[in-house]
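Q: I'm writing a short explainer about Transketolase for a general audience and would like to include a description of its predicted shape. Could you first generate the structure from this sequence?
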Amino acid sequence: MDTMRDRFAPVVSQVLDEDPRVAVVLAEIGAADFQETARRHPDRVVNVGIREQLLVGAGAGLALTGMRPVLHTFASFLVERPFEQVKLDLGHQGLGAVLVSAAASFDWPAGGFTHMAPGDVALLDTLDGWTVHVPGHPDEAETLLRHAIAAGDDRVYVRLSLQANRAGHPVDGKRPLTVREGRSGVVVAVGPMLDAVLAATEGLDVSVLYTTTVRPFDTAALRRATASAGTDVVLVEPYLAGTSTAVVNDALADLPHRVLGLGVGRGELRRYGTLEEHVAAHGLDAGSLRERISAFLARRDAVPAAS
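A: Of course. Here's the predicted structure. Afterward I'll give you a sentence or two in plain language.
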């Protein structure tokens, strides 16, 4: 199976051919994949080199002229390093752009902590007006990329990852899907966490919601699910644990409820290892998830918790 990032250059290149308003801005990463496209559209494929602040600033400049810029590099260099430019050049000026990242939380462990970004979604969540897509399969990535580019002048973040579920689902960039129905709680699986969640909850009487769009979070769908499954909610996110617990707490504020936030821990893992070893170390493999979810559901009289 190809990767989500394998879909990025072909999709954006096709859109560049079709829509003269679209431009792509790169910071060296991924530039080789756009060589042919750059020959066709030399004024709309811009490589600023390893200058990530300029990447965002140049995208904002293009947006000021009425263009729809698509900006791409690793997540740590797209959201964290140029955060001031994301905040001011785009947000403060009310400009739209599509930020498309690679490497996710720890997709390239050999790159070290500089190339890891488990806090990217939480950081963007401090800003107003962002849509955040977290596809779980290359087919979903392609669909959500097209949605993002076509989304008028909105600010959209598309988080690509090497982690992927075995099969894609018919996502629409808005509503979550009910994958399994139960009566003893709701487990929300985000993007590439779905397969592990389904394996972890096999035989448990819980509903499983699958979402690839976490901002805005579809709280209405969550409330519908809790109406039949109960208000114990487990969030399984492929980035910083607890990123969406406040959203869920707000959605259920008028109801007695408990929330468990599972995801990437705050502790830095200082060994390179493999992607799979990092998943296991953060307790996001199916076996660890089953233990943590089962223990949470068994403590129905416990104080509401997030971890």
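A: For your explainer, you could say: The chain has a mean pLDDT of 96.
Q: Perfect, that's easy to follow.
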